[in-house]
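Before relying on records like the one below, remember that each one covers exactly one chain. Contacts with other chains, cofactors or solvent are not represented anywhere in the record.
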Amino acid sequence: MVRLSRSPAALEPAPDTRRRSWPSTVIPAVLAAVAGLIGVTGPSLWRDESVSAMAARMPLPGLWRLLGEMDAVHGLYYLLLRPFAHFEPVELWLRLLSVLATAAAACGVAALARRLAGAAAGLSAGTIYALLPMVSRYAQEARGYALVSAVAVLATWLLVEYAERGGRRWVGYAASVALLGWLHLYALLLLPAHAVAARWRVLLPWAVAGAALLPLAAVAAGQRGVQVFWLKTPGVAELAGFPVEVAGGAGGAVLVFGLAAVGAWAARRTPLVAAWAFLPVVLSFVISQVQPVYHPRYVMFVVPGLALAAGIGAAHLASLVARRFAVHAGVSARGGRGRAVSAGVLVGLMALTAGPHLDLRRPGSRPDDLRSLTAALAADVRPGDRVLFVPERYRLFTAVYGGAFDTLADLTHAPGAAAPRTGPELGAALRGVDRVWLVSPRIGKRYAKDERLLVLRELYRPAPTRTYGDVHLTLFTPVKP
């Protein structure tokens, strides 16, 4: 049997309290769900979410073709999103899977902390997870990162089960690792943290999971140039910015990571706690010096580990204060003073993160405001107008809200053609067209010499450009003779 070292005795849950501590897991789950639903329809869908919507709405043969060209690493998530993809309001339904996953992760974090260090640690850890701005950010996003975090919690729970009880429980652990990889290959950076805790006994379940992941890994390797070409080598500033990303600001980062450091020390005989909270981010940063793989959302699966450590840290501090106070005030006052410390930590975290939470729910808080783009186009479009997307991939995500995009004739491709029009072909297609809407990013050096833009600017003059986050909308009308 695999054996995990346990936390110091001061943090061990008493056997007679475990059965009565179900609120320590239910309350964080409810809090996470409520936080995820508040303001969920406020921000517009942005480009990544729009791609999720497009893929989830595709007929299965079309989705299969798409995954053969790009986004194979998100294929399982797109399949899971399909039941949510055809209802209104679109923001609520597309993001609902992430809200549910976040609630499940909060419950799992609380359950793990309760198992390792008692009900007080469980309630603190789960609540801290639910209150973190990064958690809310991805609870309100139609991408797979909240689901990846939930499966990371599940895999860690099953590792602990396997470690404590042995037997065939390795099969469940292997299945959870395979599921984690199918949802996001980079999340497998969690496994070194598991190895720190369980050592060589993880090799068998890892081998089974690896066999299940081979097809995805082979396809994803060929799509890397399309999928993550935009990643850059991170510097120390990017690594230092991760705590702020998690907690929404410097004050919250100091509180959460300070508590996590205390919790990692308090649970030093359970190395899984510190390894999960810190090791994957360090590994991602180091690997990225050779091959960029780091982005804060790609290592979000460590946030449950951070909350686990922070919750144990809060419970440990509360226990220390309660003991100190008991010497002077008697045992009867001990529990109340400890609970007051835990409550103070959570209230302080709420105060420090309130502003970031409000900012995340503003309508313009996402990188693209596709809802306003669609509304503006609908208000100004006229019969006979055309639309041109430069670069071509902007066709994939800007039309998620439909509207005028469903009726505008698209100049980017000739009818039935797989490749975009060339400059001369676009010039021929523009004959007799009075108005063209250009949907593009900022036209800098990268696109300034695009042959379609050169033709468009030769024949038409632009009106002032309107910006909707990183997406620009420009109306072109013919140059007068």
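The two ends are 85 Å apart (CA to CA).
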